[in-house]
Amino acid sequence: MTIQKVMMELVVVVIPLFLLSGDERVQPLQLNGPLYSEIRGNVLKPQLLESVEDVANLLGSQSASAIKQQMQFETHGVLVFQWSGSGHDSLVIKTVNDHMATFQYTRGRTRDLRQHVQAFALDKRIVWNVTGSDEQHE
């Protein structure tokens, strides 16, 4: 019985940690506080920020300090997507392989205009691209 209990505890504790860790080369970042800049931009053309100062200038000091705690600027940059669109717009990491990260943008169908900002820690050694999906979701 005790071996089964230990195995179950291992499964319950370790597997969720593994699933949450994801790929270390590309990770979503949490942004804190009100955004410093106005939301402008094209979701298909994000900005790559390479220092805490760049992040502070674009997103504000609260977000910069939150991001600094989540990643290392020596090995990663911050890829920031800013756009206006439906409240049901989505942007997800579609694939990550040895040299390429692909993000997929899907336009929502609702007519509620929202401001969107998403940031990702991106390994400086890989390139990225953004694709738009013709699929729409609610």
- The amount of helix comes to 25-40%
Q: Give the SSE order as H and E letters.
A: HEEHHEEEEE
Q: What's the pLDDT, averaged over the residues?
A: 81
Report the β-strand fraction as a percent range: 35-45%
Query: Which geometry do the CA atoms define?
Result: globular
The unreliable regions are 3-21
Properties at a glance:
single chain; 138 residues; alpha+beta; 4-stranded antiparallel beta sheet; 3-stranded mixed beta sheet; 3 helices; 7 strands; 28% helix; 41% strand; globular; disordered N terminus
Explain the overall architecture.
- It contains 3 helices and 7 strands; from the N terminus they run αββααβββββ.
- By secondary structure, it is of the alpha+beta class.
- The chain has one domain.
- A 4-stranded antiparallel beta sheet has the order 1-6-3-2. A 3-stranded mixed beta sheet has the order 4-5-7, with no helix packed on it.
- Strand 4 and strand 5 (100-108) form a beta hairpin.
- The longest helix has 20 residues, at 2-21.
- Mean pLDDT is 81; it is low at 3-21.
